[in-house]
Amino acid sequence: MADDLHSDPKPAESLGEIGLFHFAPYLMNRIMGRYNADVQTSLKQQGLTTVKVRTLGVLTVVPGLTIKELAVYAVTEQSTLSRALESLEAAGFVRRQEREGDRRLREIHLTEAGRQEFEKHWQLLYARYQTMFDDVGEDERAQFVATLQKVLKNTRLHDF
Amino acid sequence: MADDLHSDPKPAESLGEIGLFHFAPYLMNRIMGRYNADVQTSLKQQGLTTVKVRTLGVLTVVPGLTIKELAVYAVTEQSTLSRALESLEAAGFVRRQEREGDRRLREIHLTEAGRQEFEKHWQLLYARYQTMFDDVGEDERAQFVATLQKVLKNTRLHDF
Predict the structure, then answer these.
(1) Domains of chain B by range and CATH?
(2) Segment (H or E) for A94
């Protein structure tokens, strides 16, 4: 029956049966809530926002994205990203240029100053990452990342 | 030297060397950004917020928390949680009572109506969870959750 999903809506397990600390979305929200709050606090002291640093970080590895693509990569609303980009452009950290072969599209690139700016903050992000995975060995990290990649494929709306 | 951490601030790897799609905090932010946006959209249609449903969910498994404890469990600012609790109390979904042995503390408990309300929304959360972990087998899920629990211990400020 095509309507099977709706004819029996009762989930196979309750949250109590799974257990709050065994329910992966809950654990991930707890972890990322803490991580993002910590990063935000540290960046604020340096006059930056998470969105700006994420934008610089993404552009160091994937240059030449459009604003639409960048919003997905940087996990940000396009309107928030627009404002961040204006400020990053004014600071000389990013520049925009027409995409070769399609002049309607504007690509965003990092400048050398933008690359240096990200390097300064990468130190902080990397240190937090190391603390998070302190007692997680190399094989376990690799397995963890492999599962995350599967889950991202199952979750995302875009093919990147 | 006590100052070793600061005397050599250069991270061992760059983001480019690790790879954006191999950097666990990035993958987790991508996944949870999508998951939370989807859940928020579905709940909004039913006149609820993520914070309210999280609060109900946490209380189904850990009854009798104080507002301070609940803020940590529900990954929410205390001020936001306060407003959510007022609304949940007015709807008859939670009730407050003095903690036995310490009358200064007020515990928050779910009512039977609150429990039924959460059950209605758990169906949605559970379905999203199943989609996320669609092609992740039982052993892989267990390993993934075990790693998440380690990472939460390394990240959190409280002992719960």
Answers:
(1) 50-129 (1.10.10.10)
(2) strand A94-99
